[in-house]
Amino acid sequence: MSQVGGMRVSYGRGSLTEETLAGTWFAQFGLWFAEAAEAPEIVEPNAMIVATAAANGTPSARTVLLKEASERGLEFYTHYTSRKGRDLTENPRATLLFPWHPIQRQVNIAGTVHRVDPAESDAYWRTRPRGSQLGSAASPQSRVVPGRSALQDAEAALAAQYPGEVPRPETWGGFRVVPHTVEFWQGRPDRLHDRLRYRRDGETWIIERLGP
């Protein structure tokens, strides 16, 4: 691993200025997300790192797929009994990071977290492929299992039990992150990266530049 310290990439694909920044965080996120979605190097532009902390402060992070974005916030779905689900129940705050490295950009979003309405979770559940429904319902996410065969057996049992529609488990649903800061990072030469942040101040948003 001695070569790690010498690994460097020169950033110079673009810039981000106060003059070109959109008026709202959601408009700017929409612009950048669209460009990430069009970049052939980025396989899953909606893949984001979700960082949480338990009540005792123990942090954890994992990659999750963004499933909805609006001015209300950003949504993802999971088991409420998973590690992240338990963290968010105990400590309803999270940070989301979109690491769009191929286009030398990142978006960092921090905010409070709320469960989405059960009707919204039902609506999204119905759009999922049957295999994904069965896999989610069969998995005791984040808990120790004796082996892969136990998961496969549980999935097969559910498939036999529900030959038609698979019901959404009550312990599975959506979380919405309501931002209080949204930072847009653009790589620049000589480590003088652009970092522009929208920060909520009461009912208004302040735009500020951060040192790289």
Keywords:
single chain, 212 residues, Pnp Oxidase, Chain A, 9-stranded antiparallel β-sheet, 5 helices, globular
Task: Describe the structure concisely for a colleague.
The chain is of the alpha+beta class and 212 residues long.
Structural write-up:
By secondary structure, the protein is an alpha+beta fold. It has one domain (9-209): Electron Transport, Fmn-binding Protein, Chain A (Pnp Oxidase, Chain A). Helix content is 26%, strand content 34%. The protein has 5 helices and 9 strands, in the order H-E-E-E-E-H-E-E-H-H-H-E-E-E. It has helices at 25-38, 83-90, 118-127, 130-138, 148-161, and strands at residues 47-53, 59-65, 68-70, 73-79, 93-100, 105-115, 172-186, 194-201, 204-209. Strands 1, 2, 3, 4, 5, 6, 7, 8 and 9 form a 9-stranded antiparallel beta sheet that branches. Helix 4 packs across helix 5 (148-161). The two termini are 27 Å apart. The mean pLDDT is 94.
Shape assignment? globular
Q: Quote the beta fraction.
A: 25-35%
Low-confidence sequence ranges:
none
Structural class computed from helices and strand pairing: alpha+beta
CATH superfamily: Electron Transport, Fmn-binding Protein, Chain A
Number of helices: 5
CATH class: Mainly Beta
Beta strand count: 9
Radius of gyration equals: 20 Å
> What name is given to the CATH topology?
Pnp Oxidase, Chain A
Count of the domains: 1
Distance between the termini: 27 Å
What would the average pLDDT be, to the nearest integer?
Answer: 94
CATH arch. level architecture? Roll
Q: Please write the string of helix (H) and strand (E) elements.
A: HEEEEHEEHHHEEE
Major sheet details: 9 strands, antiparallel
Q: Portion of residues in helices?
A: 25-40%
